[in-house]
Amino acid sequence: MTVMANEIENVTERIIRQLYNNGNTDKASLSALRSASTIDGYRAQKVWPVFLSNLDENWLSKDGRATRVENAIFAAVRMYALHQQASDYCVFARKVFVKKTEKKEKKDKNDVSGLELFEALNHLKQNADSPEALDRRVQALLGTSNFTAVIDQLVHLMQIIKSKKNNVQIDYARLAGDLYKFQLGYRQANEVRLHWGEQYYRSFGKSNDNNSADNK
């Protein structure tokens, strides 16, 4: 599963980089992505050349029904397309994982690091005048194990993020990995929802240094 998730993330990043194309964005494909709810929809056909050519043959459908990998990557790239609309910078960036001892050095170098989606939503909540609407959307998402319902709620959350115009960059590749795992079964979906909940409800004002002994 770990190797598979990493491969999914790498392919998702490659697709997004091709669509962004160093600022010369593929506007037709991004528009199609925003209006297509699933990979097998008519509007999604516009992005098939970029999307399907990057997928491993073993990830492709054998019977015309989208695979879990196809669903996960398509959904994550679609969220990127929704966020990228009307933005003059790339809204995608991989999250850089660093050790605590390296954090100051990384900060001093101004390394670009994206946030995972629910980390970004957490920051948005901290700065919101009235976070209740955002809370309701997140709670509705975390309260379901239905993949289609999760995607519907993600679309609403992307609309909120895009409306804030706060120059946040999100790791949509990591989102693809999470969405793949979410589809594997009830236990895996619960693990993903807990991970998202921890990111959204975490208090950034509290240090975890004193709690390290509890995390065995």
UniProtKB/TrEMBL annotation:
Pfam families associated with the record: CRISPR_Cse2 (PF09485)
Highest rank taxon of the organism: Bacteria
Coiled coil region boundaries? none
Under NCBIfam families, the record lists:
casB_cse2
**UniProt protein name:** Type I-E CRISPR-associated protein Cse2/CasB
Q: Which organism is it from?
A: Lactobacillus nasalidis
